[in-house]
Amino acid sequence: MSFPVLVLAGSRDGENDVLAKLGRVSHKALLPVAGQPMLARVLNTIVRTPGLGPVTISIEKPDCIRDLAGNATILRSASSPSESVAEAIERIGTPCLVTTADHALLRPEWIQEFLAKAQGCDLAAGVALRATVERDVPGTKRTYIHLSDMSFSGCNLFLIGTPKGRNVIELWKRLQQNRKRPLRMALTLGLGTLLRAVTRTLNSTALCRRIQTLTGANVRLVTLSDGRAAVDVDKPSDLTLAEQILAQTTP
């Protein structure tokens, strides 16, 4: 089966993004990582992964990546990632694999592992357990979500497997719209769920069940076996780390 791919390349700050300024480029997606624009690295990985395509790229300035996009379709991104995904999925349909332009270390084997483990659900999110990240990328500082049964970092890999998965995107949109209104966010998720999350008594099973209750979608957290999958290039220290990992990696 061929999976269409959506690559999120938007940046709220455009040429004012810290990484765009660091790389002296017009957009973060064009930042050179070990001499190659990170968007190009992601696209090359997609091309090298069997069973993927066609590719759609979502970015607020389509003209700045036309030379890199190849045969990919370019869509103008919306004002937030959730809205960009929702609008793109309306055109692409499901199933659809979603990743990001700043996933400069992305490897075909990570995608294949993720898709193999994600089969049979409406929406899946790739994650790496904290112990796995610390094993494979010693000393790195990542953002972790702490549940009672696992601490994990996201890997910027998502599968919207069926039309029901769109309901989760709509929930994500509502949460983003209320991100500066904690009470409304709490009411959206449910006060009980929020309280359990704050006190770290919420486990992954209960979290996925709550999302299913709210959306009707079967959601799964897919753990990947390589902790490097949790490394994206979101700040200058990430760029240094990514280039160090690439220098140590055998092609």
- What is the C-alpha radius of gyration, as a whole number of Å? 18 Å
Structural class: alpha/beta
Biggest beta-sheet profile: 8 strands, mixed
Mean pLDDT: 91
For the secondary structure, the number of strands is: 10
Order of helices and strands: EHEEHEHEHEHEHEEHHHHEH
- What percentage of the residues does DSSP assign to strands (E)? 15-25%
Keywords: Magnesium
Organism: Gluconobacter albidus
Domain MobA-like NTP transferase: 22-125
Protein name: MobA-like NTP transferase domain-containing protein
Describe what this molecule looks like in 3D.
This protein is an alpha/beta fold and 251 residues long. It has helices at 18-23, 38-48, 66-69, 81-92, 108-118, 130-136, 165-177, 182-189, 191-198, 204-215, 236-248, and strands at residues 3-8, 32-33, 36-37, 52-59, 73-76, 96-100, 123-129, 145-146, 151-160, 219-223. Strands 1, 4, 5, 6, 7, 8, 9 and 10 form an 8-stranded mixed beta sheet that branches. A two-stranded antiparallel sheet has the order 2-3. InterPro entries: MobA-like_NTP_Trfase, Nucleotide-diphossugar_trans. It comes from Gluconobacter albidus. Pfam families: NTP_transf_3.
